[in-house]
Write a structure and sequence with these properties.
It is rod-shaped and about 95 Å long. The chain is α+β, with helices and mostly antiparallel strands. The chain has one helix spanning 2-22; strands at residues 35-37, 59-61.
Length: 75
């Protein structure tokens, strides 16, 4: 009787170990974009009124989904 009980407990513990080892509890994170700005501000020197001035801000997407930036227009 003791051998059957010991065998059952051993089998049950092995089952638990295999079940728990197969479950990580973690899931893949949802895709998201991550904007990284090389420069966040820029101060223009004084310019004559009516003069077009431009500056380029470089943005890098470090995420795993497309980066959408609404309201920004490129000439």
């Amino acid at each position: 009787m003791k051998l059957k009980t010991t065998s059952f407990i051993t089998a049950f513990v092995c089952f638990l170990i295999i079940t728990i080892a197969g479950y990580t509890g973690a899931k893949e994170p949802d895709p998201s974009s991550q904007a990284i700005f090389e420069q966040t501000t820029f101060e223009f020197s004084p310019v004559i009124s009516g003069t077009d001035v431009t500056h380029r801000f470089n943005i890098i997407n470090k995420g795993n989904a497309p980066l959408h930036i609404p309201g920004v227009y490129v000439k």
